[in-house]
Amino acid sequence: MSDSRSAQNALDRECSVFSRYLIGQPPSAYVLSKYRDAHAKLPYLRDGAAAPFDALLIRLACWNPFLTRLVDSHARVFFKHSGVRAKLVVLLAILESCAPSHRYFDRSEPCGKAMLLLITLYHGLTFLGSFVLATIVLWPARFLLECGFARLWTSR
Amino acid sequence: MDKLLIVGSGASGVHFALSVLQKGYHVIMADVGHRKPATIDRSAAFDELKTGLDDPVRYFLGDEYEAVVSPQARQEYYGFPPNKSYLFKQPATFHFEGQGFQPLFSFAQGGLAEAWTGGVYPFNDAELGDFPFDYSEIDPYYSEIARRIGITGARDDLARFFPVHDNLLEPLELDRHSAQLLAAYEMKRRYLVGKLRCYIGRSRVATLSVDRDGRTACAYCGRCLWGCPLHSLYTPSLTLEELRRHPNFTYLPDTYVSYFTYDAHRRILSAVAETPGEGRSREITADRFILAAGTLSSSAIYLRSIFQGTGEIAILRGLMDNRQVLVPFLNLKMAGQTYEPRSYQYHQLAVGIEQNDPRKYVHGQITTLKAALAHPIIQNMPFDLRASTAVFRKVRAGLGVVNVNFRDVRRESNYVTLKTDGASDHPRLAICYSPPAEERILIKQVLKTVKRALWSLGCVVPPGTIHVRPMGASAHYAGTVPMSTGAGLHTASRDCGSHYFDNLYFVDGTTIPSLPAKNLTFTLMANAIRVADRAF
Ligand SMILES: Cc1cc2nc3c(=O)[nH]c(=O)nc-3n(C[C@H](O)[C@H](O)[C@H](O)COP(=O)(O)OP(=O)(O)OC[C@H]3O[C@@H](n4cnc5c(N)ncnc54)[C@H](O)[C@@H]3O)c2cc1C
Ligand code: SF4
Q1: Cα separation of B324 and B78, whole Å?
Q2: Residue with CA at minimum distance from ligand 2 atom 6
Q3: How many angstroms does the Cα of residue B11 sit away from the middle of ligand 1?
Q4: Is the ipTM here above 0.85?
């Protein structure tokens, strides 16, 4: 398989995992093509993973939606400007701009105040849980990378 | 009759031109004049564009994804939509540097107000205190501009701050969230007015609530930010179209005016202009010259003219701009409801915060969130993106922002001048601005009032979300060659004639002698036709 073909496959897989993480739906063919196009055009998406820890976050995040959530929770607090957040935000922007995924953003059943409180509490707690778990796992990894394992990791 | 050369087709230039044409003058308008892209699918509502367009991502985010608000860019909450990028394209020979100031320049047909949000508020007598005329002199011109562009508003609590001129149209239909806020204000009025001196009412907007002059009443399609497809929201390019049908009007697009030539009596003879990208200069002659290129560009042309004629680098002191602070809020009463993408998108309510000195009035516009891209907000919510998206869907109908504006006055330390690189024929415009020392305290005090007012209306301000915009961001520039009753070198007469050049007039913000908190463009347009009426 050519390099460009495998890079394209990797982006498609990443997009698919991220889309399922963000809105619980697989991406359409149009979204996949836009995600690839964005990577071709936005330097900060291509170069975002220059730092070893950022590269680690991206690798982990595209494994499956559960790991994406762990990584994103951690990045939300400690690495808001990381490459993985940039990729997720670009995909979010693509998903909300086209059919059918825009409906997830634009349409929502009304709910009462108690329900709203419960929903917010649920999401707040799951965020907190994944943040704590992610931090337990990712801090040591970051420490190791910063202590010189960077070369080892990036050469893999 | 005299031949007039007007530089610029923005809000100031087009209304001045219309008035002098009506008086029988021959008018040439020189303008860089970048053109807007064609409007797509006029009848579709905001949400229908996402399903109906072949390539909706390209429309909403741009060819280069420039409308994505990236967490890495650390930019403002919202960028401009891709179809407005033509507004900010600059000629290759135009250079500037800003110290403490991030200006916006437009070289487009219609100028910056092609991207405006249509807030139009007359200045009152207190706010006109530094002007060489009072409200009674400018009132008929406010009424005339209201007739031309169509302004909606109401005679409500804010009339104590906004004089009521003629030709005010019925207000637009309120969106549900704005209606709820206004009802909450009525319930809490005693506290808000009595304790906080905070008044809320309908904002005045240049958007039609009825069909008029070939324009259609607002159809509540939610596309305002992307450019009104029905021309219900006024933009100066509509007046430019009207001018171009006039037999005495000549429009010169692709014309970048660099400077004026003049004789020993400082009588201007011609404008030296070039076609951007071509580099060849040509001269345009006229009897009188009118600068309407926007305060900063007009200042640049004026400074370059002095430099070309004398070698002197002048300094124009007193640049002003309104500091703007964005206060996002969540209305707990609206949270959980469905949101309405098919609504008027911009502000429908305004807030006035009274001060002991009426000149220090603080002005705000309340915009409830309707049709807009969600990712800039979602990424700033306090959870991971999945949780933030899920919560955002539920609270969207309750989100909004108050854009709080502070007044500015002319200060010596804020100026525009030129910088040369020796050999270059094109000196850079240099802008230097520092806010007054007491600004921080004032902002803090006012924000306390705004937060208390919002709380009493059932709204909370999420911690860490208040954003103090950089100076220059409001694009309300003024004051570099002020109107004055004296005859200082770099000042203008009460009818905006230059005291330096014999036959030069300014009809944009350049001559505004102090800048109230209210958006200034309505006053720029009214003043431009006041000058046309009195000096021509
Ligand atoms: C996002 C946004 C929202 C806004 N909202 C509001 C609002 O709600 N209410 C309000 O009152 N104001 C608002 N404003 C401010 C408003 O747009 C400006 O006050 C107004 O556009 C000033 O008009 P002007 O004609 O003086 O200058 P400009 O709009 O700057 O127009 C300048 C014109 O001169 C031409 N030009 C410039 N230099 C040259 C040159 N060297 N040679 C030839 N031509 C030249 C340009 O092509 C252009 O046509 C907003 C601005 C922005 C950016
Ligand atoms: S003003 Fe806004 S909502 Fe009204 S028709 Fe124009 S784009 Fe649609």
Answers
A1: 14
A2: B228
A3: 7
A4: yes
User: Ligand 1 centroid vs A149 CA: distance in angstroms?
Assistant: 55
Whole-model pTM: value is 0.94
Domains, chain B, ordered by start? 1-34+89-116+235-320+476-536 (3.50.50.60)
What is the span of the domain harbouring residue A22? 3-154
Radius of gyration for chain A, computed over Cα atoms and rounded to the nearest angstrom: 17
Query: Nearest CA to CA, how far is A79 from chain B (Å)?
Result: 10
Q: Which amino acid is at B236?
A: P
pLDDT tens, per residue, chain B with 536 residues: 799 999 999 999 999 999 999 999 999 999 999 999 999 888 999 989 999 999 999 999 999 999 998 887 656 667 789 999 999 999 988 999 999 999 999 999 999 999 999 999 999 999 999 999 999 999 999 999 999 999 999 999 999 999 999 999 999 999 999 999 999 999 999 999 999 999 999 999 999 999 999 999 999 999 999 999 999 999 999 999 999 999 999 999 999 999 999 999 999 999 999 998 887 899 999 999 999 999 999 999 999 999 999 999 999 999 999 999 999 999 999 999 998 889 999 999 999 999 999 999 999 999 999 988 999 999 989 999 999 999 999 999 999 999 999 999 999 999 999 998 765 667 899 999 999 999 999 999 999 999 999 999 999 999 988 999 999 999 999 999 999 888 889 999 999 999 999 999 999 999 999 999 999 999 999 999 999 999 99
User: What does the alpha-carbon distance between residue A66 and residue B325 come to, in Å, rounded to a whole number?
Assistant: 38
The helix, strand and coil proportions of chain B, stated in percent and rounded to the nearest 5, come to 30, 20, 50
- Smallest Cα–Cα separation from B35: which of B88, B108, B105? B108
For the Cβ of B230 lying below 6 angstroms from any atom of ligand 2, the answer is: yes
Domain count along chain A = 1
User: Look-up: residue for tokens 């891209």?
Assistant: B373
Q: Which ligand is nearest to the CA of B88?
A: 1
Can you tell me the distance from the alpha carbon of B147 to that of B151, in angstroms, rounded to the nearest whole number? Answer: 8
- What is the DSSP secondary-structure string of B87-107? GG---TT--EEEES-------
* Closest CA–CA distance from residue B65 to any residue of chain A (Å): 7
DSSP secondary structure code for residue B204 in this structure: P
Contact residues, chain B, for A76 at CB < 8 Å: 382-385
Chain A residue with the nearest C-alpha to that of B332: A113
Which positions ≥6 away from B201 have C-beta within 8 Å?
B154, B156, B157, B158, B159, B182, B349, B350, B352
Q: Do residues B287 and B5 lie in contact, with contact meaning Cβ atoms separated by under 8 Å?
A: no
CA B224 to ligand 2 center in whole angstroms: 5
Residue B348 CB–ligand 2 contact under 6 Å: no
